[in-house]
């Protein structure tokens, strides 16, 4: 349904992206931020899903500055050693420049919302703080909560976490909820990565519930 494209950023960098356009007039635009596996099969499928829901959706390859064109279908434990090395050079400020380029591309659909998973969930919160022309954000199990808890969101934002996520302690989630009582923060009886249907951790019931909430949130704020 979608196609691979290139995005040009404000600092002159060219990065990969995946874009899907809905049939008929878009309800709005969505920027979808990847996990640490790049623009892989599941992420491209999620972009297509948002297009079927009526949104012009763009997923930027936010790891291209670390290793150009990186993407993987390897969900095994050996993948994390490679990712750990790549992430040592991750620069959130440059990542937001890449996100902004995606927002501009998604704006062809109207008001733009942002969503993302894991690495992309944390970046969704950072984008909500930065603004970047966005109108709403819905992030999924963004790790490293202490790294973004001081970044107050400047747009409507909601977040989704798994109660059984061993990488994101519930006390961190509760600290985030206490700090920002106006931000809806939802918990699900699932582990980390529960929305990814290509992984063993997939929890269909939790994923469907969280996805429905995101669609309702975007329908409210992108109309």
List the helices and strands and how they pair.
Blueprint: E1 3-8, E2 14-20, E3 28-33, H1 41-52, E4 55-60, H2 78-87, H3 92-106, E5 112-117, H4 119-130, E6 136-140, E7 157-162, H5 170-179, E8 185-188, H6 204-221
Parallel strand pairs: 3-4, 3-5, 5-6, 6-7, 7-8
Antiparallel strand pairs: 1-2, 2-4
Helix pairs in contact: 3-4
Walk me through the structure.
This protein has 223 residues and is α/β, with parallel strands linked by helices. It is 35% helix and 21% strand. It contains six helices and eight strands; from the N terminus they run E-E-E-H-E-H-H-E-H-E-E-H-E-H. The protein has an eight-stranded mixed sheet with strand order 1-2-4-3-5-6-7-8, with helices on both faces. Helix 5 (170-179) links the parallel strand 7 (157-162) and strand 8. The radius of gyration is 16 Å and the shape is globular.
Q: Please trace the helix and strand order, writing H or E for each element.
A: EEEHEHHEHEEHEH
Strand content: 15-25%
Low-confidence stretches: none
How much helical structure, as a percent, in the residues?
25-40%
Please tally the helical runs, counting DSSP H or I stretches of 4 or more residues: 6
Mean pLDDT across the residues is 97
The general outline is globular
Strand order of the largest sheet: 1-2-4-3-5-6-7-8
Structural class: alpha/beta
Return Rg in Å. 16 Å
* Total number of beta strands: 8
Main beta sheet: 8 strands, mixed
Distance, first to last CA: 24 Å
């Amino acid at each position: 349904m979608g196609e691979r494209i290139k995005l040009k950023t404000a600092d002159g960098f060219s990065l990969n992206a995946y874009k899907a356009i809905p049939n008929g007039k878009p309800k709005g635009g969505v920027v979808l931020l990847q996990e640490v596996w790049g623009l892989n099969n599941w992420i491209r499928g999620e972009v297509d899903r948002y297009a079927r829901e009526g949104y012009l959706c763009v997923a930027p390859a936010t790891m291209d500055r670390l290793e150009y064109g990186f993407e993987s279908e390897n969900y095994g434990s050996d993948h994390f050693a490679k990712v750990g090395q790549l992430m040592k050079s991750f620069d959130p400020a440059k990542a937001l420049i890449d996100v902004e380029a995606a927002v501009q591309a998604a704006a062809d659909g109207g008001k733009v919302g942002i969503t993302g998973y894991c690495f992309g969930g944390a970046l969704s919160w950072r984008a909500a703080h930065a603004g970047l022309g966005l109108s709403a954000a819905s992030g999924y199990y963004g790790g490293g909560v202490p790294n973004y808890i001081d970044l107050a969101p400047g747009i409507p934002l909601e977040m989704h976490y798994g109660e059984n996520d061993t990488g994101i302690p519930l006390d961190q989630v509760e600290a985030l909820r206490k700090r920002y009582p106006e931000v809806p923060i939802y918990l699900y009886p699932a582990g980390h990565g529960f929305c990814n249907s290509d992984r063993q951790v997939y929890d269909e019931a939790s994923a469907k519930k969280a996805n429905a909430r995101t669609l309702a949130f975007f329908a409210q704020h992108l109309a």
